[in-house]
Q: What sequence folds into this?
């Protein structure tokens, strides 16, 4: 979840194809007008239909956190409810594991909801006449799971959200954050493949909300569910999402990684949306670094190093070993001295205590590093090889830029 | 130009009466057996034992904490006994309990139907309006035509009069269940029955119990009216007081009705707030 890159090997679990939801009457006429690009007000006036989701096409990969973001009235909650058919689609296909759920009969749909999906609600949707453990066991109970198995799984789910000890508490005795933990535990108890979360943390106060976001990230790292998360809060979307879909007036404006949304907004709407985001919390070293830079190999001699520095007008040079593994840095004075002594290798004069950052380091966390050093900061991949460099100028401009223009 | 709908209604009633005599006789004898078995049970125990029983019931309904209602029960029912009204009070109680149970047996399912379906509500509402606003005396007459005089037409009229609030409050209770709770039950794959019994009814219970309470109170308020067609009980006592201008007699009968009404109201109310407390912790 800390990783902005999409999960390994995208494997579509849910595929949505030309999906429409129009509330009201004379739906096919409304859809024709929509496709012809008529404005919403005109469609409402002529057909009485209100389009909530318009021609949605996307796929959600297994084990990713897919965030659907939009303001109220953008159709995001409708889109979520189309995925498990709490709302019937007007038109289109919803493939879950290749099966079009828009075609399922009542009992097959019920089976699918029991087996694959679980849902977490903004206002929790708990049953006040049941205590915590009875609420958590609800999904299992309606599947006629044996009572002792029910109990065991419910207890596990309660533990996984950190509510142990509250099993017999009344719902009304819990705070909002704790109630939502119950909601989360209820969803986890049935061990679903897909978690649908409808503004799950929006009703919580900011501190609890951040805490719940972190815990969801932890849970997701452990359990590896496919999460579809609805929010109106861009910061939350950027924090949780592997990919984000931005919706406006029922239309998906852009789908992409948090960085892609920030750095390459597809429409003006998305651009105005992301303008005020604190980019240092989202952009990583890997996304702003310069990929090409002059480096010396450890096998090169000091003469070559000096020449490289002179050619490129540098006073120091990074040194990489075999497979471009980062070793350190040499400066021009040491290289000249070593060359005079007749040394043939850079090894002895490489300074190894150079501050480095990882590709996934957030810019926010690079600021202290940048303030300590005057040279560019080398960016390393997970395996220790050098990916690029971030100069102080690049760092500053990335932090200050409003529109993702990095140069 | 004049147009009278009355004769048509009269014809309809006569036609119904002549065409389905077995149907109305069946209902009539069923109700009669119901009322009589209640009367038998209530009259079986000696009055002092009944007073103890009713008092314990009140105390239990208050969760054994509050003994005010228990005290009221002892005093009130003892007074009824001392006024020599015990037997006819039990008759009235039997009639009220029978009518209430029948009203609930029809009213709650009807309320559930109209609470779960928009079309159901459209269908049921005008019928309820009719039942609630048509003066009770008016349907007393057809009740007599169908079931002759006695307790049975009294019970039928009482059922019609007492049922609407039970239907309405059941519907209201179901509609007030938060949308997300209903959505959650769907999202986790509830069958319609599971949704009704595990989510909607438990959450609507306080409202439904308020409906039960209202139905009982309305049934009691019909006691005197149904006495006019020979339903007996405390209502007859009151009627006799009025027609013979015996103020004291009428007052005693009226007082007994009030005591019974307050007792039943407080007990059902206590049971209702019980279930509400359980929901609110």
A:
């Amino acid at each position: 979840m800390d990783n902005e890159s999409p999960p390994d090997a995208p494997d579509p679990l849910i595929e949505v194809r030309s999906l429409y939801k129009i509330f009201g009457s004379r739906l096919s006429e409304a859809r024709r007008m929509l496709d012809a690009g008529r404005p919403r007000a005109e469609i409402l006036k002529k057909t009485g239909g209100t389009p909530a989701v318009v021609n949605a096409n996307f796929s959600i990969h297994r084990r990713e956190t897919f965030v659907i973001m939009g303001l109220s009235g953008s159709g995001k909650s409708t889109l979520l409810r189309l995925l498990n058919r709490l709302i019937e689609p007007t038109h289109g296909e919803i493939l879950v594991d290749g099966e079009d759920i828009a075609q399922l009969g009542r009992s097959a749909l019920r089976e699918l909801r029991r087996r694959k999906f679980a849902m977490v609600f903004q206002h929790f949707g708990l049953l006040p006449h049941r205590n915590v453990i009875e609420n958590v066991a609800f999904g299992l109970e309606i599947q006629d799971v044996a009572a002792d198995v029910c109990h065991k799984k419910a207890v596990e789910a309660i533990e996984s959200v950190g509510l142990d000890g509250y099993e017999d508490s009344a719902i009304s005795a819990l705070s909002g954050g704790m109630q939502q933990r119950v909601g989360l535990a209820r969803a986890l108890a049935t061990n679903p493949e897909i978690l649908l979360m409808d503004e799950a943390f929006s009703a919580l106060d900011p501190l609890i909300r951040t805490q719940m976001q972190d815990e969801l990230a932890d849970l997701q790292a452990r359990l590896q569910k496919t999460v579809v998360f609805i929010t109106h809060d861009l910061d939350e979307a950027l924090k949780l999402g592997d990919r984000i879909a931005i919706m406006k007036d029922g239309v998906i404006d852009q789908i992409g990684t948090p960085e892609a949304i920030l750095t390459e907004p597809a429409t003006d709407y998305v651009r105005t949306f992301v303008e005020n985001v604190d980019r240092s919390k989202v952009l990583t070293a890997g996304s702003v670094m310069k990929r090409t830079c002059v480096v010396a190999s450890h096998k090169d001699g000091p003469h070559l190093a000096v020449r490289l520095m002179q050619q490129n007008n540098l006073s120091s040079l990074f040194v990489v070993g075999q497979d471009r593994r980062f070793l350190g840095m040499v400066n021009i004075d040491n290289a000249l001295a070593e060359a005079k002594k007749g040394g043939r290798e850079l090894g002895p004069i490489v300074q190894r205590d150079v501050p480095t950052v990882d590709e996934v380091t957030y810019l926010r966390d690079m600021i202290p590093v940048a303030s300590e050093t005057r040279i560019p900061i080398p960016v390393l991949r997970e395996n220790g090889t050098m990916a690029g460099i971030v100069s102080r100028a690049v760092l500053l401009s990335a932090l200050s830029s409003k529109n993702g223009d990095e140069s | 130009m004049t147009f009278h709908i009355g004769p048509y209604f009269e014809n309809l009633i006569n036609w119904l009466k002549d065409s389905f005599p077995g149907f109305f006789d069946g209902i009539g004898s069923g109700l009669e057996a119901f009322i009589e078995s209640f009367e038998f049970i209530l009259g079986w125990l000696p009055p002092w034992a009944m007073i103890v029983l009713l008092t314990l019931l009140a105390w239990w309904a208050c969760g054994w904490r509050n003994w005010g209602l228990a005290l009221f029960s002892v005093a009130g029912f003892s007074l009824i006994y001392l006024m020599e009204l015990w037997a006819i009070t039990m008759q009235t109680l039997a009639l009220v309990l029978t009518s209430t149970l029948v009203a609930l047996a029809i009213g709650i399912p009807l309320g559930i139907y109209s609470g779960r379906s928009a079309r159901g509500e459209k269908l049921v509402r005008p019928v309820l309006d009719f039942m609630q606003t048509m003066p009770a005396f008016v349907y007393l007459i057809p009740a007599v035509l169908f079931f002759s005089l006695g307790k049975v037409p009294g019970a039928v009229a009482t059922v019609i009069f007492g049922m609407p609030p039970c239907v309405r409050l059941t519907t209201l209770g179901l509609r007030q269940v938060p949308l997300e709770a209903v959505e959650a039950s769907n999202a986790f794959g509830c069958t319609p029955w599971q949704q009704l019994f595990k989510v909607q009814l438990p959450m609507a219970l306080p409202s439904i119990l308020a409906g039960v309470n209202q139905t009982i109170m309305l049934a009691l308020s019909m006691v005197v009216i149904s006495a006019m067609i020979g339903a007996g009980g405390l209502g007859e006592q009151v009627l006799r007081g009025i027609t013979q201008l015996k103020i004291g007699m009428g007052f005693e009968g009226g007082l007994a009705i009030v005591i019974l009404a307050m007792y039943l109201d407080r007990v059902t109310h206590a049971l209702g707030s019980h279930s509400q407390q359980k929901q609110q912790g």
Observations:
- The CA atoms of residues 220 and 316 of chain A lie 43 Å apart.
- The first strand of chain A starts at residue 12 and ends at 23.
